[in-house]
Amino acid sequence: MSLVLPFLFAVLGIGSAVMVVLKREAMQGALFLIVTLFSVAAIYLFLHAEFLAAVQIIIYAGAIMVLIIFVIQLIGTDSSAGRINNAQTPIAVGAAALLLIQLGILAARSLPSFNGNGPAADSGLGKTLMFSTALFTKFIFPFEIASVLLLVAVIGTVILAQKKGVRE
Amino acid sequence: MTLENLTLIFGACLFVIGVTGALVRRNAVVILMSIELILNGVNVTFVTFSHVYGDIGGQMMAIFVMVVAAAEAAVGLAIIIALFKRRPTVNVDEFQVLKW
Predict the structure, then answer these.
(1) Contacts of A29 in chain B (CB under 8 A)
(2) Which of A8, A37, A114, B9 has its CA 20 to 30 A from that of A160?
(3) What is the pLDDT of residues B10-53, one digit of tens each?
(4) What residues of chain B lie within 8 A of the CB of A34, using their CB?
(5) Is there a contact between B93 and B49 (Cβ–Cβ < 8 Å)?
(6) ipTM
(7) Interfacial B residues in 42-61 facing A (CB < 8 Å)
(8) How far apart, in whole angstroms, are the C-alpha atoms of residue B30 and residue A158?
(9) Non-local CB neighbours of A78 within 8 Å, separated by 6+ positions
């Protein structure tokens, strides 16, 4: 298949990810992160993961990012926290460049199983039927643990956000 | 270059950009957003290999990573707000009480 569209979405995703990190204002970074999440959802569509693309948009870009934007608006702007150049920047950028080179070499190497076609179009790989069948039969245990995790997260958030603050 | 190569490199770039942001930025909310970038990079890698091997397990792993990311974002933001109530800043350089 033609690689033009996936390449465009990948460039869009990486560009807006760089903007998330570089922008001084947290609010602008959050908006660029939403663009990144949408481009990742588009890449999921190319990878036969349609259900995951929908979940990504609904949950990640629709719930998590709204939560983050709420908190950014509550906190307001913090001019001291906008500095990007500090003592750790050279080390961090150097380590990140090294990691990117390593990962890039790994990713660019073609394994024999990369035939570029992927699963058959009618195998129903990322469609809701196979996804939900696997989720409720083979992966039922992580599913239940995930619900317990979410319950714990809700309880923890409520306790942390109490008016009197955490008990000393 | 196949589609899988492209998406693997895309996931690697997202991961590395997220790591750089988490190390360099000082705003606590921006650090949290960089961690979300890291998790998205990992998700893209999982879904790529699910596509290569035709196995649904990669997408399953990706959705559980999303669940954990949602829980972690909620608790992390609650922590940031609790910190902000104490001292009206989100600059992580200012919170040095635990430093030896």
Answers:
(1) 30, 33
(2) A37
(3) 999 999 999 999 999 989 999 999 999 999 999 999 999 999 88
(4) none
(5) no
(6) 0.94
(7) 43-44, 47-48, 50-54, 56-57, 59-60
(8) 22
(9) A26, B27, B89, B90, B91
